[in-house]
Amino acid sequence: xxxxxxxxxxxxxxxxxxxxxxxxxxxxxxxxxxxxxxxxxxxxxxxxxxxxxxxxxxxxxxxxxxxxxxxxxxxxxxxxxxxxxxxxxxxxxxxxxxxxxxxxxxxxxxxxxxxxxxxxxxxxxxxxxxxxxxxxxxxxxxxxxxxxxxxxxxxxxxxxxxxxxxxxxxxxxxxxxxxxxxxxxxxxxxxxxxxxxxxxxxxxxxxxxxxxxxxxxxxxxxxxxxxxxxxxxxxxxxxxxxxxxxxxxxxxxxxxxxxxxxxxxxxxxxxxxxxxxxxxxxxxxxxxxxxxxxxxxxxxxxxxxxxxxxxxxxxxxxxxxxxxxxxxxxxxxxxxxxxxxxxxxxxxxxxxxxxxxxxxxxxxxxxxxxxxxxxxxxxxxxxxxxxxxxxxxxxxxxxxxxxxxxxxxxxxxxxxxxxxxx
RNA sequence: GGAGGGAUGGCAGAGUGGACUAUUGCGGCGGUCUUGAAAACCGUUGUGGGCUUGUCCCACCGGGGGUUCGAAUCCCUCUCCCUCCGCCA
Length: 422
Prior knowledge:
The protein is an alpha+beta fold. The chain has helices spanning 4-9, 11-20, 27-61, 67-100, 138-145, 150-157, 167-185, 200-206, 231-236, 293-311, 357-362, 387-397; strands spanning 120-125, 148-149, 163-164, 190-192, 197-198, 225-226, 242-244, 250-259, 278-288, 315-319, 331-339, 344-353, 365-367, 375-376, 378-386, 405-406, 420-421. The strands form five sheets. It has an eight-stranded mixed sheet with strand order 1-10-11-12-15-9-8-4. Strands 7-13-14 form a three-stranded mixed sheet, with no helix packed on it. The radius of gyration is 27 Å and the shape is elongated. The two termini are 51 Å apart.
């Protein structure tokens, strides 16, 4: 949610910024509702002030002469208040809903562009390995080594499901444990194990709702929504709190399973384990002060890159242009790993500075010093990293001519010392 | 799943229809005293919103609704917490 005052005071600036995102937002409706609301409030508050005063007078008179008349008058004032209150409530609800549909505005350093074709590759690190044989895609390697079982996954749960087996499952578990340890021990994050199911409200706060309703699974009978990312529970961790400034930045890292309907990408990436309805991810999250959030963003990108560096896998960093920013980010980078088998750059991380967009929706604030007014924090999130794709990158980059896979050195302690999967 | 008890300010905890402008204590902040500190004493201490920007007004006692001239207080409902029983990993 962006600041209503900004829309009220600089509507043209807001309209123009949103246009660069290639989306529309109900700015005129918001301006109209905002004015209606303030008019109604002035009226109803004046009436309430009068009623408060007269009611106190009635109390003082203790049912003496004239109180019946006053009571009758206040009954009528009460009716007016009630009628106006209903209008206020309706206008405020419409205003709130409209504000929740406005995307975040891009930071000045974000390149303007119409879609992903205008994203900017910021840097590429690591040389793609030269193979003296034809490297295989993971969907061939997995079944050959009996570490991925596509058929039985589909038998149980349908398309976009698979089973990791034996050392395949172990390798994923090793990646998760190693990445968590890396971020906790080397990068200063605090580990969180969050709920994988949350109440609807949490999805409004982090900005998944209203836009991405079609991509979220939820229980039809109870208010349980399956998270599509640990960003959702992490954003809500400090909802409705005022954090002390000297505790910032707060750095969290969480492993979670993630669930996505993928209705919008039907038919895309159906081969292999790149895009499933269920996947694992290690997610980084920061609550910072406004003045430090862009430094923290660069640090977080570095933390995601460290995973690629330490695994010895070539990667690149891509800066999203305005047309590919999405709903909540003011600035966003993707980290992509090179996968020589399927011959593509795999998006293994997406790192965003949401500035105060989520903080407003979740009322997450901080206080600079005792007595100072609370201010909204800035929030950042980034994958560190997404599992199935990292698993793909490891398998395809570390494959050998006989189809076996060398275990990257950093993972061996987490694999019971196993050096090769064969 | 069954029965009962709860939710009040940073914390503890009083308040059962008008004196609540929410008692009191602790903590925090400022001051007096002191070489300094402690103690004592005095003062102060939340969050939003409105336009007429003021010694101004409105809202907020878990959320929502209702009764009333007037609700922290009475009624309905939801959420969460606690105790006991049952079940369960």
